[in-house]
Design brief:
The protein is an alpha+beta fold and 216 residues long. The protein has a 3-stranded antiparallel beta sheet, with helices on one face. A two-stranded antiparallel sheet has the order 1-2. Helix content is 41%, strand content 20%. A hairpin with a 6-residue loop joins strand 3 (62-69) and strand 4 (76-82).
Length: 216
C-alpha cells in the first residue's frame, strides 16, 4: 500500500509516520500548562483543521494552544483556548489519520496559496535592497534569502482568513475551492476574483518580518 502523505498548507509530510514524529516532538518540547510559540501554533492550527470534529474543536476561533493533562486521559495532549475563553483538548493522531481535510481546511489553504507569489516577491525585494543581508527581527543576526523565513507576525494568518470571511460575509461552499490540476495536492480558489479579493484584503492588514530559519 503506498504511503499516505499528510498535506498541510505550509508543509507536506511524506507519510503519516513522519507527521506523527513531528507533532510528537512538538508536544514533548512543552511542559504542562505551557503555551506554544507562534510558529508551532501556526502549523498546529493547520493540523487541527483535519480533526474529525474540527468545527467543534475550533468553535468561535482559536486564541492559543497549550499543553495540558486531560481529565479523561492519563497523558498530556494539546489543548485549545478559544477566543470566547472556552477550552478543549484534542489528539494530534486523530488529525493525522482521522479524515481527509475538510472544507474549512481547503478554504484556508486556498487563501494561503493565493498570496504565496506576492510574498515570495516581497521577500526577494527585501534582499535585493539589502545585498549584504537582512537582520532577523528576533535575533538581530544577518540572514540571506536562503537562511531566512518571511513570516506573519500580527495579525496571524489564521486571523486574516477569519477576518476576510467576516468582512465578506462568506458562506463557504465546496464550489469555492478545488484541487489543482498539477498533481501537487494543492487547493486553490475556483474563481480568480475570490483570490484577488483575498490578496487585496491580506495586503491591507498583513504584517510580516524576516526571521532566521529555525528560530522560534
Amino acid at each position: 500500500m503506498p504511503a499516505k502523505p499528510v498535506v498541510l498548507p505550509s508543509r507536506t509530510f511524506a507519510t503519516q509516520g513522519e507527521a506523527t514524529a513531528f507533532f510528537k516532538a512538538m508536544l514533548a518540547r512543552y511542559g504542562d500548562g505551557e503555551f506554544l510559540n507562534s510558529d508551532d501554533e501556526d502549523i498546529l492550527y493547520e493540523l487541527l483543521q483535519r480533526h474529525p470534529e474540527a468545527d467543534e474543536k475550533i468553535g468561535a476561533g482559536v486564541q492559543a494552544f497549550y499543553r495540558q493533562r486531560s481529565p479523561d486521559h492519563p497523558t498530556s495532549c494539546f489543548h485549545v483556548l478559544r477566543v470566547d475563553g472556552k477550552k478543549t483538548d484534542f489528539g494530534y493522531p486523530a488529525c493525522i489519520t482521522g479524515r481527509a481535510p475538510g472544507l474549512r481546511h481547503g478554504f484556508y489553504e486556498a487563501c494561503r496559496r493565493s498570496v504565496v507569489p506576492e510574498l515570495m516577491h516581497q521577500k526577494q525585494q527585501l534582499f535585493d535592497f539589502s545585498p549584504s543581508g537582512v537582520r532577523c527581527v528576533k535575533t538581530g543576526e544577518l540572514t540571506t534569502i536562503h537562511t531566512s523565513e518571511y513570516r506573519h507576525t500580527e495579525p496571524r494568518f489564521r486571523d486574516i482568513v477569519s477576518g476576510f470571511i467576516q468582512a465578506k460575509n462568506l458562506a463557504i461552499t465546496p464550489a469555492m475551492v478545488t484541487v489543482s490540476q498539477d498533481m501537487q495536492y494543492q487547493t486553490v480558489f475556483t474563481d480568480p476574483a475570490m483570490a484577488r479579493e483575498f490578496i487585496e484584503f491580506h495586503a491591507s492588514v498583513a504584517k510580516l518580518e524576516i526571521f532566521k530559519k529555525y528560530v522560534r
